């Protein structure tokens, strides 16, 4: 019996190590885990320690327990989706998972489904509109959306405006959602460096609505219908 118990505990420990490695791989980005007091060129603790080999190491004890804890199916799925967001920090991922425990199941499943859309402009827009429908947006969700937008290639505003599949109504709803999430006055400041200046928004909105009217006129003229 003692031998069986030893084998069982050994299997659990190996499973935990594999889980830790996976969390580090996707959250921290190509690092190797070490236990406290091990590795590197010194005895310092904390994440981001670089050893003599030049390979970044992260101490196992620095991993937030929530990233290894057993959660219900919905929140486990969200945690997995978060680990696949490009370059998302382990700290922010953990904050989001913790906050998910206070959110409704509907919110968690909807956000998970949207994040599964991958690293695209449309995913960012969908998440913005989902969060914009809430009365109050928690800081971690705001930070998540901001991160997702920042890792996209610069020019999201221009690409969205130039997308003929995005109607004028959809364009307006997206901008309205961004203002609700980041604040009416703070939008430009929050999205600093992404080109979301008030001047740019007004300019692209005018072009977007102008093109929309031209398309509408062209369609009704060709069909002879003005309904």
Automatic annotation (TrEMBL):
Protein name, per record: Uncharacterized protein
């Amino acid at each position: 019996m003692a031998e069986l118990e030893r084998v069982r505990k050994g299997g659990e420990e190996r499973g935990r190590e594999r889980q830790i490695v996976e969390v580090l791989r996707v959250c921290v980005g190509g690092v190797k885990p070490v236990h406290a007091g091990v590795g590197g060129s010194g005895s310092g603790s904390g994440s981001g320690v670089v050893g003599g080999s030049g390979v970044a190491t992260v101490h196992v004890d620095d991993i937030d327990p929530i990233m290894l804890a057993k959660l219900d199916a919905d929140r486990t799925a969200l945690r997995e989706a978060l680990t696949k967001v490009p370059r998302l920090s382990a700290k922010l991922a953990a904050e989001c998972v913790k906050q998910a425990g206070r959110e409704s199941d509907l919110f968690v499943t909807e956000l998970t489904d949207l994040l599964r859309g991958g690293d695209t402009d449309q995913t960012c827009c969908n998440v913005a509109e989902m969060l914009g429908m809430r009365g109050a947006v928690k800081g971690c969700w705001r930070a998540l959306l901001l991160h997702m937008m920042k890792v996209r290639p610069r020019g999201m505003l221009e690409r969205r405006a130039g997308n003929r599949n995005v109607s004028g109504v959809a364009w307006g709803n997206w901008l309205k959602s961004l203002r609700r999430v980041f604040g009416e006055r703070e939008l430009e400041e929050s999205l600093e460096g992404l080109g979301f200046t008030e001047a740019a928004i007004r300019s692209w909105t005018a072009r977007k609505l102008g093109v929309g009217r031209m398309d509408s006129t062209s369609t009704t003229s060709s069909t002879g219908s003005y309904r």
